[in-house]
Amino acid sequence: MEQEIFEDLQASLHNSTEAFKRETAKLRTGRASTNLLDGVRLEYYGQETILNQVATVSVVDARMLQVKPWERNMCGPIEKAILQANLGVTPSNRGDVVLVPIPPMTGDRRREMVKLAKHLSEEAKVSARNARRDAMDLLESLDDFPEDDLLRGKKKVQDLTDLAIKRIEQILVDKETEILEV
Q1: Nearest 5°: CA angle at 25, between 23 and 27?
Q2: Which class for 14: exposed (0-12), middle (13-18), buried (19 or more C-beta within 10 A)?
Q3: What's the pLDDT score for residue 179?
Q4: What's the pLDDT tens digit per position in 105-120?
Q5: Same domain, 132 and 117
Q6: Over the chain, what is the mean pLDDT?
Q7: Are 113 and 162 in the same domain?
Q8: What CATH number has the domain bearing residue 6?
Q9: Cα atoms in the 13 Å half-sphere on the side-chain side of 15
Q10: Are residues 48 and 11 in the same domain?
């Protein structure tokens, strides 16, 4: 039972860290990245669909993305969906592809992105702490569990949580550096 608690905790902590990585990958850094368009959704044959399921997104150069739909008639809806996603970019429809120029970021916009990244890191840390609390509660609820084992278990839970929070902080530092790089 104790081992299951640790495995569940590790899975929860891993999920928190990975979710934070995915969210920060979507943040605009001033350089072209296909992750920028990950959250874009559009109407495709009556279904709301993720952009990368109807088109290929590629980086043309440091400041340009190219979206090549699998069906030529999807260029208009793709352009509209990118505009509606409010990413701070203006796509241009070339008939068979949609080009998305990535404008250089201003200093104020960079600071806003850093604030957003810090907010996302706090959410990830809260998620990690909630997982820690749940694991501690489960350990305490075990019947016939020796006091020494309980203390060792709590220390292990805290160590795993501290490690996850360090990973989150390192991801944040890397992302901050990337955003502030001119």
Answers
A1: 80
A2: middle
A3: 86
A4: 888 888 988 999 999 9
A5: yes
A6: 90
A7: yes
A8: 1.10.132.20
A9: 11
A10: no
